[in-house]
Structure formats: structure tokens, C-alpha cells
Amino acid sequence: MRNSVLLVFLAFILMSCDSKSVFDKYQSVPNKWHKDSIISFKIHPPDTLNPYNLYVNLRNNNNYKYNNLFLIVEMKFPHGKTLKDTLEYKMAKPNGEFLGTGFADIKENKLWYKEQVVFNESGDYTVNIQHAMRENGKVNGIVNLEGITDVGFRIEKPAAK
Questions:
Q1: Which of 69, 114, 130, 134 has the fewest CB atoms in 10 Å of its CB?
Q2: Backbone angles phi, psi at 2, to 5 degrees
Q3: What are the angstrom distances between the C-alpha of 131 and each of 2, 73, 78, 102?
């Protein structure tokens, strides 16, 4: 019990020291991620002048049985404009070992979405994320994707030059 309290305290301290983070939130995926289930984040950027780097964060466990992941990421701007991207991320090495960080069976992945983005419209932005996985040779997508436990979105200040 004492070790658990110490680990939670250390994790809190490490997260508090993240000076680059502007926005960093996760949503849990219950058991399986349905193809029509959209994970949504409402974002109020800090300013309309400075550039930021954007990431999709994912946590997966050993039930994830693919070496890549296809996502549809949609960003809705405050005044109606929408950008939609289909993205592919590598999730495992050729030997099947998962990429990402973590000591147990949960791996955390910080995946590039966009860099040097200036939120030039004031107001709230919405980011929607859904999976677009298909098995090789099959037309229909995977209805219930197993092994993704959490989906997140992160905005960071770029590293100083």
C-alpha cells in the first residue's frame, strides 16, 4: 500500500513538471472501440498567435492484435471550417513487440497529428477521433476494435529554438 501511494505521488509530480503541455486529456474506451464511436475533445486554445504541436495519444494493451492503426481525425474550427484526415500509425515492431512506453501490458503512444498549428480563430475547437481499421483483403471495417483502452489529445508548445 505504501509503495502504491508513493508511485501515485511520483506520477503526479512528473505530470506537474510538463511545461510544454497546453492541453492533455484522455477518454476511456469501454472494452471495445466501436467503429461508429467518436471520441470528442473540446479545446479552447490559449491564443491565436503562437504555433503548437498536436498529438493523438493512445493506450493499448495486449488484446490489440494489429501492427498498425488507422484513425480518422476531424478538427472543427469555431467559425465552421472542418479539416478531416485519415492517418496511419505504426503500433508494433516487425517482431510483434508493441511500440510506446510502459512497463506492464499497457503501452502509451504519443502520435504526431499536426505541427506548428496556429489557432487563428478565437473560440472553441472540437477534435473528433474514430478508428478506421480494416483487415487485409476485407472490404468491411472492423466493427469492434479490441485492445485500445484510452484515446487522448494533446497540444504542446514547440521546443524553443
A1: 134
A2: -65, -40
A3: 39, 9, 24, 22
pTM of this structure: 0.84
DSSP class of residue 79 equals T
b/e per residue 12-26 (b: at least 16 CB within 10 A): eeeeeeeeeebbeeb
Q: What is the pLDDT of residues 117-146, one digit of tens each?
A: 999 999 999 999 999 998 877 778 899 999
How many other CB atoms sit within 10 Å of the CB of residue 153? 23
C-alpha neighbours within 13 Å on the C-beta side of residue 14: 6
Q: pLDDT tens across 3-13, in order? A: 554 444 445 44
CATH architecture designation of domain 22-156: Sandwich (2.60)
Any idea of the CA torsion for 12, 17, 23, 27, to the nearest 10 degrees? -20
